[in-house]
Amino acid sequence: MAPVKYYKLRLIAGGLYIALVIIMSLVPGSLTPEFDPTKNKVASHFTAYFIMMIWYARIYSAKYYPRLATLFILLGISLEYMQEILGTREFQAIDMLFNSLGVLSAWLFARFRFAPAVSR
């Protein structure tokens, strides 16, 4: 298998995306722009974590998917609790569920779609 092209650049971009998810999760809801024209918050959570997992699945091989999925699911859960602690947003278990479903869906998609494309 060939090494991943632009490995460091992809890691930096992925790190910036994670930082964006963290910031958007913790700032008060009144300060965040409304990206979804349908205002479907559930789809936004699913999509954000799906993209996060897919991004790293393109960098690392399938043997790392369980670690990545665990990390991203724990990130979603911890951010939800941080919202409650900081009082910036409301704690909602449904958000954690759809964050996790986004990660797991991306894991399955990556596993069957393009896992052999990477060597790390």
Describe the structure.
It is a single chain. This protein is mainly alpha-helical and 120 residues long. The chain has a domain at 40-120. The chain contains four helices and no strands. It has helices at residues 7-26, 41-57, 65-86, 93-113. Helix 1 (7-26) runs antiparallel to helix 2 (41-57), helix 2 packs antiparallel against helix 3 (65-86) and helix 3 (65-86) packs antiparallel against helix 4 (93-113). The relative contact order is 0.20. Residues 115-119 have low confidence and may be disordered.
Round the Cα radius of gyration to an integer and report it.
Answer: 15 Å
Distance between the termini: 9 Å
As residue ranges, the low-confidence spans are 115-119
Mean pLDDT: 85
Largest sheet: none
Proportion of β residues? under 5%
How many beta-strand runs?
0
Order of helices and strands: HHHH
Q: Approximately how much helix is present in the residues?
A: 55-70%
Instruction: Name the assembly state.
Output: single chain
Question: What is the fold's blueprint, element by element?
Answer:
Blueprint: H1 7-26, H2 41-57, H3 65-86, H4 93-113
Helix pairs in contact: 1-2, 2-3, 2-4, 3-4
List keywords for this structure.
120 residues, globular, 4 helices, mainly alpha, disordered C terminus
